Amino acid sequence: MNSELIIQEFSNEKFVQDTVNQICKDFSRCGWDIDSILLERKLTKVELEELLAEKLVEIIKFGETQLLQLIYIIDISEKEFLSILSEQNFPQLLAEKIVLKEAYKVFLRKKFS
Question: What does the alpha-carbon distance between residue 25 and residue 84 come to, in Å, rounded to a whole number?
């Protein structure tokens, strides 16, 4: 995945909205409704990551199983996950990885459809 190319796409409002929709879809598959948080206004990549980090803190409080299920659905690799697990700013780092992964899904769908 070319992160720089994906990050450039965040200047496109439709791409950002499609990424937000993908995030909402994957979170809802785990039983976490975040539509109201993310769909109420236009967000930048940084704002999106901040809101997700806050939600991840909430999910972490519910337990490891909930978090691991979410990571599996979003398709964050075990190696990536374990590399940030012991970091003090773990929720923020994980939010960044989630946004990039979900944006990559949107990018691929756009490129190959």
Answer: 24
